[in-house]
Specification:
The protein is an alpha+beta fold and about 375 residues long. The chain has 10 helices and 15 strands. Strands 7-6-2-3-4-5-8 form a 7-stranded antiparallel sheet.
Length: about 375
């Protein structure tokens, strides 16, 4: 979901476009424990076999940097109605209580399968990824036919603890304050697994907090250059060595962000085939260990502001669209099955049309959108 156009040439070009310093430097205990760098992700139905896994539910809990709030986003794959999305806003106190409670109940000490992803040792086809207060924990399950017996197994009490922790997170997302959301909300919480990468990202996002140019960037979809592994790391691929390497990554370096109106990438875990978005790196924040961060921003693409304003105007004018649909329109997102208003607002008239099938050419790909005359255009493709 995150763009991988992270070459040194791009970094040099973006820095040459013009820099501005922000008073943020790496390090510091407040950054290390900043809850905005924490996240929790649960995927139910993650085990695969001959066929790919059919994800039944995905839950994301963390900080939305664009809206500046903690939130829980639940995506449930309903057989009859497709993917239903709900969003629950959390207070900082509610989020801290949930995440601290996970640690207090022993999540960090639960065993992980070895080798990674070789077996579903908790027996429920569910994965849980957690990062909070310097602790990173993530179990994996087989996504295909390959199985490897795990050298570590949980006790019955530990299995029960795992199930209780999953239930606690799901309860937080099923609050009476939950509201309908859109698939765009699936991209509203960054899910960087590495503790060190998360710290660098928090510093970069904070550097943009008081800069008006930060409003042009999607802070929820950061791209961090991959660090080349050392020879020792490549020789020793054990879980312990991999975890140690992740925690030891440099907390300085560049963080790239796309334009806020660029489409996110395709969602495959829930069976959607959404058009691939550009997500081109538009802004770059470089974090240094001993001096302020530096921000560079690429020039706006021709017509970008006008197109964004047009989508906002159409979304506002179409009272038949739900608020979730308006979010999609404003971001230029079109689903495989979409309302006519949403398709016209996001992409304009089709290049070709056959009945209710509208054909577009996007990024060198031919994309077909099925126009539905129903009010709700959030029905997934079969």
């Amino acid at each position: 979901m995150v763009a991988k156009l992270l070459t040194s040439a791009l970094l040099l070009a973006s820095l040459q476009a013009g820099m501005q310093s922000a008073p943020v430097t790496a390090g510091g205990e407040s950054t290390r424990d900043d809850p905005r760098g924490s996240f929790l992700e649960i995927v139910v139905g993650a085990v695969g076999g001959i066929r790919a896994p059919l994800t039944r539910e995905r839950l994301l809990i963390g900080y939305d940097w664009n809206r500046r709030e903690f939130r829980a986003v639940a995506l449930v794959n309903q057989a009859s109605t497709g993917v239903e999305v709900s969003v629950t806003a959390l207070t900082p106190e509610e989020f801290a209580a949930l995440m601290d409670g996970m640690l207090e109940r022993g999540l960090g000490s639960l065993p992980l399968e070895d080798p990674a992803g070789g077996a579903d040792i908790y027996g429920c086809g569910t994965t849980l990824a957690f990062r909070h207060r310097g602790v990173a924990w993530e179990n994996q399950v087989p996504g295909g036919c390959v199985r490897s017996p795990s050298t570590l197994q949980p006790t019955q009490e530990q299995v029960q603890t795992f199930n209780e922790l999953v239930a606690s997170a799901r309860k937080a997302a099923s609050s009476s304050t939950a509201r309908p959301g859109s698939l765009l909300d699936a991209f509203s919480i960054p899910t960087l697994r590495s503790v060190a990468e998360a710290r660098r990202f928090v510093l970069a996002a904070e550097a943009l907090a008081d800069d008006p140019r930060g409003d042009l960037l999607d802070l929820n979809r950061p791209s961090l250059p991959a660090r080349k592994r050392s020879i020792i790391e490549r020789l020793d691929s054990s879980r312990a060595a991999a975890r140690a390497a992740a925690h030891g990554e440099l907390e300085t370096g560049p963080v790239f962000f796309p334009w806020r109106w660029d489409q996110p990438g395709a969602i495959s875990t829930l069976g959607w085939v959404a058009p691939i978005g550009r997500a081109e790196p538009a802004g770059c924040v470089v974090i240094y260990p001993d001096r302020p961060a530096e921000l560079s921003l690429s020039p706006l693409p021709p017509g970008a502001s006008e197109a964004q304003q047009h989508r906002a105007d159409v979304a506002r004018a179409h009272v038949d669209l739900t608020e979730a649909e308006r979010d999609l329109v404003r971001a230029g997102w079109v689903l495989p099955v979409s309302s006519e208003a949403a398709a016209l607002a996001a992409w304009g008239p089709p290049a070709a049309q056959r009945g209710d099938e509208w054909h577009y050419e996007r990024d060198g790909r031919l994309v077909t959108v099925q126009i539905t005359r129903a009010r709700d255009g959030l029905v997934p493709a079969d």
